[in-house]
Amino acid sequence: MTDEELMMAVCRGDQRAYQTIVKQHLTSISHYAFRILGNQKDTEDITQEVFLKLWTNAPQWKPEKAKLTTWLHRITHNLCIDYLRKHGRMQTRESFEEETASFELNGADASNYKIKILNQALGQLPENQRSAITLCHYQGFSNKEAAAIMNISVKALESAVARAKRSLRNRLLEEDVKTEQPVENDKLGNGKSDSVESKQRREPG
Amino acid sequence: MTIEEFTKIVESYGSEAARWPAEQREQCRTFMASNAAASTLLNQQRELESLLDQITVPEFPTLESRVLNQQLPKQEASVLDRALAWLLPKNSFSQQLWRPAMLACLPLVFGIVIGNFFSFGIALENDGFAYWDDELTMLSLNEYTENSF
Fold first, then answer.
1. Most buried residue, A137, A156, A193, B62, by most Cβ within 10 Å?
2. Which CATH number is associated with domain A99-190?
């Protein structure tokens, strides 16, 4: 059955069609929510709400305007942004740090350390940059589709992706410099460069 | 092509050439082959993407059953859907006939009422007969001349 046929069945109240759609899109939606929210509990709550909205608002989906996956990601994006605005970013960032802390225990080699740093840096990105990089890199959307999901222009999306990648790359380069010069970093204090610290201070929450 | 333009494309579209804008793809490849800074940038981008790929999402073992077993509320029908449901009810054949017929008569009734109250610039001779009666006689499709005046 095509997405259109399934959604027509959902509009008629067919619960089997609903279940098929859930099975098809659950992983993608939950992964997107997790990468934006950064913790398991909120991800599960938001994912549940997304599919509830799919059920109640099924007639609002216009197949000629957007693919079903794009529409579902848009619902997810809006719910995540609302959630972050309502509950503040602090909770999310803490969760990212918890995730990375548990990650650190699993492996201690240089590559794993870089991944840990990168995960932390991802958690510190502004929401629009994090959403943009998640949609384009992890969810595999084209820039046009990602822009439609975030309800911004393609140019704004490209700018957000570019800034996010630049920021992540700079973070990795800073780590490379630090690991190459541990003694000098120790003399400086905690090893963080002024630019990184001032950038973190500027971050909201 | 300049290094700034190349950087913008790689940062906006990623390191995979397949994702680059088709009209600039070949230009980018040529530029990359002749520019060391461009190759370095692309390698950094690839390394970043490879590290990003290694950041995984945990499993959600109970989520599927939680979503599938949640209590689904009654669906909200749009105004149009509700109007259509009233016009063509599924359970009553007689209502399926008279409701559309009633709706079809509405423009006719509306036209008669409007026509009766407004002349729309057409001057009517008032010959002393009730105009409303004439109108009904005409609508009854009788031979108008058969009536005795």
1. A137
2. 1.10.10.10
